[in-house]
Amino acid sequence: MNKPQLAIIIPCYNEELCIKNTVEKLFEVINDLISKGKIREDSYLYLIDDGSKDSTWSIIEELHSGNNLVKGTKFLRNYGNQKAIIAGLESVREIGCDCVVSIDADLQQDEWAIERFLDEFQKGYDIVYGIRNNRKTDSFFKKFTALAFYKTMNLLGVNIPPNHSDYRLISKRALEILNLYPEKLLFLRGFFHEVGLKSTSVKFDVKPRMAGESKFNFASLMALALNGITSYSIVPLRMVAVLGFFMALIGFVVGLEAVFEKIFLHNSPNGWATVVVLLSVFGGIQLFCLGIIGEYVGQLYKEVKSRPRYIKDIELK
Ligand code: UDP
Ligand code: MG
Fold first, then answer.
1. Ligand 1 test: best mutation among 136, 204, 205, 216, most atoms within 8 Å of CB?
2. Which among 116, 126, 229, 278 is least surrounded, fewest beta carbons within 10 Å?
3. What is the pLDDT of residues 24-37, one digit of tens each?
């Protein structure tokens, strides 16, 4: 096979402390791969500034003016890391490349693993997942929530590999297929799983964040997880129906028992406590179920409006 042109996409949100260093380090990797004859010399970086409020964009512009192989775009506002990655994938598809790797701006993922990603790509894999060797750098809370998320997804029938990250390589072919997906709230990890292309994984080491702090908080991780579930599984909706059925069954049996006692034992069960407890339990379950259905309705609502996924303010090609 001919040497592939590699694109590396990097979502950046308030990363002024990292970005310069990250770009330098990634060029070390690119130059090493070029010298080994593994990629083309016009392989490039594409940075997506996800509406940063610091000087991230001016640093990107400066890097671009010094080297045309640093390309990028600036979003009008912050749309979140998933949208930034999708924008990166769509942009490099337009610019052109044979394969693309996505990596975080803080370079927590071992950038030297890119060579192994490429080796797998050359063997004919369209998607190469990066799987963390461990989660040593994550807080207990993040480890726990991530594990809970992957376990839930697996239970709901979406078998995405645990400990996988947004560090992955995908081929031009996968990019073309991604382009056929009009979903506004596309959950990338689910997409790569369901699309059915030949895929494999590469293990990599996780490092502590180079500088600055994590851009995720509980709310954004929760939103990501809920989007993942509602985009790829309707099992929760079915569970609501099954739960409703069994609750009704219990009510029916309890009712029968009351009638039985009245007719044959001549005493009717009394006590308002039972009624109050049952009312609040059932009321709670009903609201919870409504909430689940509401998540899907909300998802529909957002999709139907068909607003653009993101808007680019400036692009440097
Ligand atoms: N990021 C982004 N938009 C956001 C939040 C994060 O583009 O709204 C980027 C961020 O700049 C980084 C990547 O997503 O390149 C991963 O973020 P971070 O390192 O903060 O996440 P963590 O490693 O803590 O999971
Ligand atoms: Mg990070």
1. 216
2. 278
3. 999 999 999 999 99
